[in-house]
């Protein structure tokens, strides 16, 4: 039996610039009336069917987005609250570890097993990366749940633990600090390192520091943290938006740093404490080059590749402490320990805790918004000291302190 041909409806007409058009209206995905035009009823009918199909598809995807679509929407919503650099990092991790495995699935289709499988490749990555991706997945699905796009949240009950635990870096000892400062004396990173060691500023706070926030002539000299440095496409961006609200703080500074800053200010041509030859804040690549003065003086084992007869050959070099670089005798290998910009800050915080400064004060000086961050460092510092452990254990297990009903006294009996 022949299929009955669908009849074409009759449409109204309108003349535009001397040409007669058939016209109809449809409601778009946002509820607005949109006019469609064509020179024949058949053409207008096809346009109407296609437009309705597109509207239905848009409405369906709004109610049933894929993971990739909703991740993009979530990133857009976050861009109003976090920095461009942070969003860039989120987007890269989303693409590599969330969208790559879950992107084509509809949000309501994703199960707890799917999210766990997405995290499997990260089990061999660093704990920091695992925690970040874990956080992103949970944020996306909890946001979708609040927006009533899903009824069953697949992230409920997923463990936050995973990834390879990175080795905790110990703070620099007094001897290592002395060696480091002696190594970089008269070199470009010296001022940066002094500020990091004796004020505990973050890298982005040091590179954004201006002289109007350095108070050297007060009865108690101090640095006021009011700006942050970020790099966008290698270019420096100085902002008053700090990492957290707690990052806005005033830090008293010791005499050694006061003297260092006073000398630097006398020779400065810039409003920035750390600046390039033109007085501008450093770009990302400029800071990397500055820090290379530290890296190249380390006796740490190095691996590099060299092309020989069109083949890439791997070489491993272990510099000898105290010797000079073969191609540049001015560079002497004096550092037998690792140094990073963040380690300077960690050393500052650790020294405050070693000196007996209470954790709440340290939290303020470090600009920690969450006291847990400070307390984690405090516990690691305080209870990794053998002399502290000896006193704690000795006091706890002193026989004079045994209660008749204490578990230890019962064991002794």
From TrEMBL:
Record-annotated Tyr recombinase domain positions: 167-394
Keywords in alphabetical order: DNA integration, DNA recombination, DNA-binding
Example GO molecular function: DNA binding
Gene3D superfamilies named in the record: 1.10.150.130, Intergrase catalytic core
GO process annotations (BP): DNA integration; DNA recombination
InterPro entries noted in UniProt: DNA_brk_join_enz, Integrase-like_cat_sf, Integrase_catalytic, Integrase_recombinase_N, Integrase_SAM-like_N, Tyrosine_recombinase_XerCD
Family: Belongs to the 'phage' integrase family.
Function: Site-specific tyrosine recombinase, which acts by catalyzing the cutting and rejoining of the recombining DNA molecules.
Protein known as: Defective protein IntQ
């Amino acid at each position: 039996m022949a299929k009955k041909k669908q009849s074409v409806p009759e449409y109204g007409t309108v003349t535009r610039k001397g040409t007669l058009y058939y016209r109809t209206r449809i409601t778009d995905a946002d509820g607005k009336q949109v006019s469609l035009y064509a020179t024949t009823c058949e053409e207008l009918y096809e346009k109407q069917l296609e437009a309705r199909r597109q509207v239905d598809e848009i409405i369906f995807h709004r109610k049933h987005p894929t993971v990739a679509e909703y991740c993009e929407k979530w990133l857009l919503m976050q861009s109003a609250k976090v920095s461009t650099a942070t969003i860039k990092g989120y987007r890269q991790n989303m693409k590599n570890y969330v969208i790559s495995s879950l992107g084509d699935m509809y949000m309501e289709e994703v199960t707890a097993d799917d999210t766990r499988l997405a995290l499997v490749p990260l089990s061999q990555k660093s704990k920091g990366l695992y925690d970040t991706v874990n956080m992103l997945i949970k944020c996306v699905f909890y946001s979708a749940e609040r927006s009533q796009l899903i009824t069953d949240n697949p992230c409920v009950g997923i463990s936050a633990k995973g990834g390879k635990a990175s080795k905790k870096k110990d703070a620099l000892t007094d001897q290592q600090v002395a060696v480091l400062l002696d190594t970089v004396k008269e070199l470009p990173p010296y001022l940066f390192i002094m500020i990091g060691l004796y004020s505990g500023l973050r890298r982005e706070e040091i590179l954004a520091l201006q002289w109007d926030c350095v108070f050297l002539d007060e009865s108690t000299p101090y640095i006021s943290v009011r700006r942050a440095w970020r790099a966008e496409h290698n270019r420096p961006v100085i902002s008053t938006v700090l990492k957290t609200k707690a990052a806005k703080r005033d830090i008293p500074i010791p005499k050694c740093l006061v003297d260092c800053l006073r000398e630097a200010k006398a020779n400065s041509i810039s409003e920035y404490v750390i600046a390039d030859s033109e007085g501008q804040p450093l770009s990302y690549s400029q800071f990397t080059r500055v820090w290379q003065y530290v890296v190249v003086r380390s006796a740490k084992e190095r691996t590099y590749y060299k092309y020989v007869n069109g083949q890439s050959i791997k070489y491993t070099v272990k510099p000898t402490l105290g010797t000079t670089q073969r191609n540049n005798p001015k560079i002497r290998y004096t550092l037998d320990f690792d140094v990073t910009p963040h380690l300077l800050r960690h050393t500052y915080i650790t020294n405050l805790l070693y000196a007996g400064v209470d954790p709440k004060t340290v939290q303020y000086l470090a600009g920690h918004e969450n006291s847990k961050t400070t307390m984690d460092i405090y516990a690691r510092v305080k209870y990794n000291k053998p002399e502290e452990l000896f006193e704690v254990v000795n006091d706890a297990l002193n026989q004079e302190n045994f209660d008749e009903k204490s578990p230890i006294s019962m064991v002794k009996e």
